[in-house]
From TrEMBL:
Segments passing through the bilayer: 60-79, 100-120, 135-156
Transmembrane listed as a keyword: yes
Statement: the UniProt record of this protein carries the keyword Translocase: no
Superkingdom in the source lineage: Eukaryota
Swiss-Prot/TrEMBL keywords: Membrane, Monooxygenase, Oxidoreductase, Transmembrane, Transmembrane helix
Listed name of the protein: MSMO1 monooxygenase
MF (Gene Ontology): monooxygenase activity
């Protein structure tokens, strides 16, 4: 009975989103994205897309999202919002942090990203444009992933503060402001 009610709720939500979607204008960027996606599929293998494409998207988005925070820390007006007031930023510390980040991204995260291809193959995740989920499904999946990732970071970070492993693993994290 409960399963049937949840299915009815999901069907109702799906119909509501479809109804609202019917009033929205067509996305003018959809065709250029479709052309670029199909070009990518025609010219690169799935392994290249999953591995190197994921790496490029990860690095570009990570560092672009970090730029405002990096700039703000050197603006005197923004210093009042700083959490660790007693630790001033220096270019030397920033350079050391950047080198540590690059090491972590390419020697820890890249091997994990290499598993993306095998993950997509194992779970039969399609690459074709026509098989892509609708925009609202992608939004819901991204939101769900953000919640899971945030919870994962929170609990893992708490675990890394345990007295038995802090000085061996996690102390490096607190070296930077």
């Amino acid at each position: 009975m409960a399963m049937n009610d949840s299915v009815n709720i999901l069907n109702s939500a799906y119909l509501a989103v479809e109804y609202i979607d019917s009033f929205l204008p067509d996305n003018p960027l959809q065709q250029p994205f479709k052309n670029a996606w199909n070009y990518m599929l025609d010219n690169y293998t799935k392994f290249q897309i999953a591995t190197w494409g994921s790496l490029i998207v990860h690095e570009v988005s990570y560092f672009l999202l970090c730029v405002p925070g990096f700039i703000f820390q050197f603006i005197p007006y923004m210093q009042k919002y700083k959490i660790q007031q007693d630790k001033p930023e220096t270019w030397e510390k920033q350079w050391k942090c950047f080198k540590t980040l690059l090491f972590n991204h390419f020697f820890i995260q890249l091997p994990l990203i290499c598993g993306t291809y095998y993950f997509t193959e194992y779970f039969n995740i399609p690459y074709e444009w026509e098989e892509m989920p609708r925009w609202y499904v992608l939004v819901a999946q991204c939101f769900g992933c953000a919640v899971i990732e945030d919870a994962w970071h929170y609990f893992l970070h708490r675990l890394l503060h345990h007295k038995r492993i802090y000085k061996y693993i996690h102390k490096v994290h607190h070296e930077f402001v």
